[in-house]
Amino acid sequence: MQSPTQNTTHTIIRKRVVLNTSCDACENHDCLIKKNLLTLEDFKITENKSNLRCKKGQQFIMEGAPVNGLFFVLKGKAKVFRTGINGREQIVRFAKEGEIIGHRGFGTEEYYSIGAIALEDTTLCYFSKNSLQEALLNNPKFAYDFMLFYANELNRSESKVKSISQMTVRERVIDTLLYINRKFGDLRGFLNLPLSRKEYADYAGTTEEQVIRIFSALKKEKLIAANGKRIGILNEKALKQEIEEHHYYLGS
């Protein structure tokens, strides 16, 4: 008998299934599936995928739900988080087009250790665990690329843990701003990912009040600009110099 969490997860997936987008037509050339299309032809993995559409703010991975497959972001943005002490949300990372979500539990755990929420209207490609495992077991090139992906993920995670443990709160907030800028870029003078002060805090591992104070100080120093949720970087060089000893460029 399924738990309520399991039922909820399957309901979310069923309600948002949309017409599949062909992997051949996909513009996310860094996607692991896209890069291995020729070698995956015999496994019909792209024929068995599902496209899921999520509205802004909708959760598509429930923390603690069974791992049934992986999600690739076709279009849109999402945040990946896990629940910490006293139910506090800790944002692990942000995901954009071509990136994988749900891979940390794939092949090793029965349940997702993270949750994921769409930050804007988002379309996902969903590949079942069984179809991916069959392709990995029978396709050395795909398996090798997957191994490299996990190695890079591990390197980034270890680098982030090391840096965060040595950073002040101000440095962690600056690192977050540079990470968002590096990953999503700039749109008309502001970061192309509007986040609440709480979301900045949940990624930087601090409090909303601290983020507000640090943003205020950075504005006075003319390092950033702010307009509601929109934050613009005015002096990227100065921000990089402030945290350069922590190798800010290792995160992505």
What does this protein look like?
Helix 3 packs across helix 4 and helix 6 packs across helix 7. This protein has a 5-stranded antiparallel sheet with strand order 1-2-9-4-7. The protein has a 4-stranded antiparallel sheet with strand order 3-8-5-6. It is an alpha+beta fold and 252 residues long. The longest helix has 27 residues, at 140-166. Helices cover 39% and strands 22% of the residues. The protein contains 8 helices and 13 strands. Residues 1-15 have low confidence and may be disordered. It folds into 2 domains: 4-155, Jelly Rolls; 167-250, Arc Repressor Mutant, subunit A, CATH 1.10.10. The protein starts with a helix and ends in a 9-residue tail after the last helix. The protein has helices spanning 4-15, 32-35, 129-138, 140-166, 169-184, 197-204, 208-220, 236-243; strands spanning 17-18, 50-54, 59-61, 69-75, 78-83, 89-95, 100-101, 115-118, 122-128, 186-187, 190-191, 224-227, 230-233. A hairpin with a 5-residue loop joins strand 5 and strand 6 (89-95).
Any descriptors?
single chain, 252 residues, alpha+beta, Jelly Rolls, Arc Repressor Mutant, subunit A, 2 domains, 5-stranded antiparallel sheet, 8 helices, elongated
